[in-house]
C-alpha cells in the first residue's frame, strides 16, 4: 500500500466540503493508497503531476519515492472548474524570482 500525504491546503479544502462530497473524497483517497481510482496524468505546465477525480472535485498529486518506499503527495484540491487554473498560478508564483 502506498502512503498518501495531504498538504495543509488539501486538509483545509476537505474540511469545508459538505458531508456527501467529503465522504466521496475520503473514499477516493483511500483507493489512491492502493493506486486505484480515476487518475490521469497532467500535461503542459503541470507535467509531473497527476489528478484524482472525485465527483466534481479534483486532487492534484505527485508520486515520490522516500526511503525506498513509494509515496503520493496530494498538494492541491479544488472544484473542477478552478483547480487547474489556480494550481498553475500558484506554481508560477513559486517559480518566479523574488526581489
Strand-helix topology:
Elements: E1 3-6, H1 8-15, H2 19-33, E2 38-41, E3 50-54, E4 57-66, E5 69-79, H3 83-95
Number of strands: 5
Q: C-alpha Rg, in Å?
A: 14 Å
Oligomerization state: single chain
Average pLDDT over all residues: 93
Element pattern in H and E: EHHEEEEH
Count of helical segments?
3
The major sheet is characterized as: 5 strands, mixed
Order of strands across the main sheet: 1-5-4-3-2
Poorly predicted runs are none
Q: How much of the sequence is in beta strands? A: 25-35%
Main structural class = alpha+beta
Q: Based on Cα principal axes, name the global outline.
A: globular
Roughly what percent helix?
25-40%
Distance between the termini: 43 Å
Question: Which key phrases capture this entry?
Answer:
99 residues, 34% strand, alpha+beta, 36% helix, 5-stranded mixed β-sheet, globular
3D architecture notes:
It is a single chain. The mean pLDDT is 93. β3 (50-54) and β4 (57-66) form a beta hairpin. The protein is an alpha+beta fold. It starts with a strand and ends with a helix. The protein has helices at residues 8-15, 19-33, 83-95, and strands at 3-6, 38-41, 50-54, 57-66, 69-79.
Amino acid at each position: 500500500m502506498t502512503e498518501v500525504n495531504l498538504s495543509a491546503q488539501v486538509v483545509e479544502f476537505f474540511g469545508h466540503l459538505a458531508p456527501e462530497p467529503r465522504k466521496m473524497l475520503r473514499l477516493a483517497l483511500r483507493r489512491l493508497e492502493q493506486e486505484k481510482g480515476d487518475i490521469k496524468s497532467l500535461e503542459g505546465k503541470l507535467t509531473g503531476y497527476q489528478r484524482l477525480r472525485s465527483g466534481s472535485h479534483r486532487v492534484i498529486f505527485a508520486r515520490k519515492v522516500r526511503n525506498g518506499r513509494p509515496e503520493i503527495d496530494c498538494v492541491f484540491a479544488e472544484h473542477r472548474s478552478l483547480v487547474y487554473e489556480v494550481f498553475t498560478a500558484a506554481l508560477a508564483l513559486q517559480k518566479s524570482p523574488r526581489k
